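Why do we care about 3D structure at all? Because function follows from shape, and shape follows, mostly, from sequence. That is the central idea of this module. The next example makes it concrete: a single protein chain, its amino acid sequence, and then its structure expressed as tokens.
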Amino acid sequence: MVKTINSMPRIIVIGGGATGCGVARDLVLRGYKTILVESGNLGSGTSSRSHGMLQSGARYAVTETSFAAECYRERNIISKIFPKAVNLIGGLFVSLSNDPKDYVEKFLQCCEVAKIPTREIQVGKVLKIERELNKNILRAFHVPDALIYPKKLFDLLAKEIRAYGGKILTNHQVVSIKETNGVADSIVVSHNGVKTNIECDGIINAAGPWTSKVAKLINQNVELELTRGCGIFFTGQLVKKAINRCRIPNSNDIMCPSGEESLWGTTSEVVYDPDTPETRPDEVIELIQGAQELFPNIKNYKSFRTWSGVRPLVKPKNINKNLPVSRSHLVIDHKETGLDNFLTVCGGALTTHRLMAEDVVNKLGDKFGINISCSSHTTSLLN
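And the structure:
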């Protein structure tokens, strides 16, 4: 039975990062009664602690070709639905003599499979534009990378969620989740020391690095691979485009422009606590040393602040130490472990947050017998 709008379920979304906001947006666009709950401010976690790249997918073309294709499709969608939050700067993949010799051909082949446009540019032309780049680069390829501005993105998402009738509760900590006869039906939140019970028909756990902690509140298990990344800001615009090393994604291989600043990173370290500590002095040294390979004059620029964030990746079943952990997302229906109307969405990337939301809301609709098509890919955000 297809429900009417007036009888639509009341859904709580836990987590106000890009994924949670994307889920709430998708829900309200389909007519669900929606409450988004965030323990801090919107986008205050992982979503605001990154390069801020809207990935073309080229970075993942060799290691995860299908995910790379997803990135490129989503990059195009996001650029159209909220252009005010996006800067189509373009990106470059450059190779040095110590990068794997066979990687370039694999890179080009996999980008073609993923339908990511690439174009080789003469090194001389690149060096005229990117004057701080190592003069000994061997080859350079243009890809359609872009930047996304988190603050603008979250302002637009929040405006649209509210415009379509959704409710946003920031600085509300979920302290317990309740169920009746195996069905999730309420949460208790704490705000300024006051606890409030909120009833619902279903819950979507989109809490990023804190997803496992949220699941444990109702005796559910979600296994994540938490990887902490650190980056460093330099005063001055070292680059015009996003510069990547042409090799398997690793630490210390991306430089992005950020206004009149430049952002270099990132490191990668497995952690077990999602609450991010400050960047350590040894990590700053590692970052600067790594940057010198691509930018020999980096020490002429002042490094003035660092950042660190935790990536909530899906824990791999089989670990391959030669490859990075997958960036693909996962939707978990906890009915399989005895709890109905409770879904978890995890993994993914900032670039694919809209697709993750579409996936989990489709599965929610299946549970309630609701067949309303997703429109988040065609509905432009309110300006």
